[in-house]
Amino acid sequence: MTTTALPPESAYRGGVTIDHWTPEDDEFWASTGQSVARRNLTWSIFSEHLGFSVWLLWSVSAALLPKAGFTFTVSQLFLLVAIPNLVGALIRLPYTFAVPKFGGRNWTIVSALALLVPTLLFAWAVQHPETPYWVFCLIAATAGLGGGNFASSMANINFFYPTKKKGMALGLNAAGGNLGVAVIQFFLPIVVGGAGVFGLVKASDGGFHLERAGYLYAVLAVVAAVAAWLFMNNLSGAKSSPREQMLVLKYKHTWVMSFLYIGTFGSFIGYSAAMPLLIKLNFWNQPLPTIPGIGINFAYYAFLGALVGSIARPFGGWLADKYGGARVTLWTFVAMIAGTLGVIYTLTLLTAVPKPPAGAPAPDPATFQYGDAVVTAVNANSEIFPFFLAACLFVFAASGIGNGSTYRMIPLILANEAKRNASHGDLGPAMVKATRESSAVIGIAGAIGALGGFMIPMTFGAPWIEDPVSAVKVAFGVFTGFYVVCLATTWFVYVRTVSFAGRAPSLAGANI
Fold first, then answer.
1. Is 156 exposed, middle or buried (0-12, 13-18, 19+ CB in 10 A)?
2. H or E segment to which residue 224 belongs
3. How confident is the model over 93-119, as pLDDT tens digits?
4. Number of C-alpha atoms within 13 angstroms, CB side, residue 125?
């Protein structure tokens, strides 16, 4: 019996294109593939992490713009938060198709350097309070480039790992990226001279400098590009044309999984983007930036949601590997329904904070004092905040687990379809095709799911909404109803064991 000789070790070092890549071969995986895949995963996570941070740069900086001298309304701030998410969702499709077209390493370099555009434009704009709002909207749109990194990174890493390892690998890759949201929300207030870390870090005496965040991430983007050039690889076997990948749009499961991913990842990214403004809107009172505010400072807590959701994501992949992604996803939506109902309940307990009468002159910072009714209402709401935060973190944890479980389902669904439709002699090529197609489906689902990052902030504070506080309560009610639909869809398509006349059987037997 003869064995195929492996290429020399130099053929697998960083910075080269790998021609022989067979991760499903246990011997190859143990001797060579695992270490190479891990190296590419590490630097993919770093680049994707930066992409997420830049993508959500406006989620926290929008809430700080009034302190920097900008006089935008609540609705205008929510729109600045939402715009990058819309662009990021739309750009994920071309980013997904770019990996098999140009190579994972090559595209990681390009996508990392592209982050120089939103970071440097941000640094310029925040130093000029006279910058028109529409210019801010255009600059915020360029931050969507960071959102595309996730799709290309996930599509790339999917090629490196064997089927039995994809759940944890994709979960770690996504979690490392998702953590970029928590990192930017945690560190940006501190980096720019504000307060943070649950109040342990006080505002700097040296002033407030939002531009520092832009410059910092511009430097890190260059580091990511250089690291990808030196340490990552292209896989020649991962090549395919966008036309070949677009064939997955004909598959029913592409659309079903994309819909479910709106419920999981769309919730994670949407709530992450809106969390700073949600806390500021409901639990903070500050008539003018020059007047000390009272209540809950969003900078102390807003990052916790993204942190919990990010940590939970690989756990979702692990649970999916162990118990099946469909079952885990089903219970994820049960948990999200319970969590959003908890959020709604806490919001109903809030006391309305008295507002100054319409047309009243702006208060004088030198003599201003909060009225007793305002202080009483803000203090009462501050006592409700721990329960609101706990309910939100429960939703974030559930969405993170769901992110991991849904992405674990996609390669298994495509592999199951390949095994079912291929003849015995054609199984090998069919499985290779299934891997390529699962990367395409992952990208498409990621793009459609990311639309939740636009829809959720807009539901809270679109320009046509007159009362954002009331709109938040209604929005969470709508989200709860959507999760019920996602729950029913998951059960019917992937978990159901009961047959219905004239209805196609579910994939429950395949243990997706």
1. buried
2. helix 211-231
3. 888 888 888 888 999 999 999 999 999
4. 23
CA–CA–CA angle 169, 171, 175 (5° rounding): 120
CA distance linking residue 199 with residue 261, whole number of Å: 35
- Summarised one tens digit per residue, pLDDT across range 152-197 is 888 888 889 887 787 778 778 888 888 898 899 888 888 887 666 6
Which residues fall within 8 angstroms of residue 487, CB to CB, at 6 or more apart?
330, 333, 334, 337
CA dihedral for 50, 52, 54, 56, sign (positive or negative):
negative
Give the Cα separation of 442 and 167 in Å (integer): 12
Q: Between these two residues, 168 and 54, which has the higher pLDDT value? A: 54
pLDDT in tens, 225-277: 999 999 999 988 777 667 777 788 888 889 999 999 999 999 999 999 889 88
456: closest CA among 89, 37, 25, 42?
Answer: 89
Helix (H, G, I), strand (E, B) or coil at 174: helix
Q: Which two tokens stand for residue 65?
A: 């713009």
Whole-number pLDDT of residue 506: 60
C-alpha atoms less than 13 angstroms from C-alpha of 235 in its C-beta half-sphere: 22
Q: What is the H or E stretch that residue 294 is in? A: strand 294-295
Please say if the pLDDT value at position 4 is more than 70: no
| Backbone φ and ψ of 284, nearest 5° | -130, 140
How many residues comprise the chain? 512
Residue listed under structure tokens 């980096």 = 191
Q: State the sign of the Cα–Cα–Cα–Cα dihedral 190, 72, 301, 285.
A: positive
Other residues' Cβ atoms within 10 Å of the Cβ of residue 393: 18
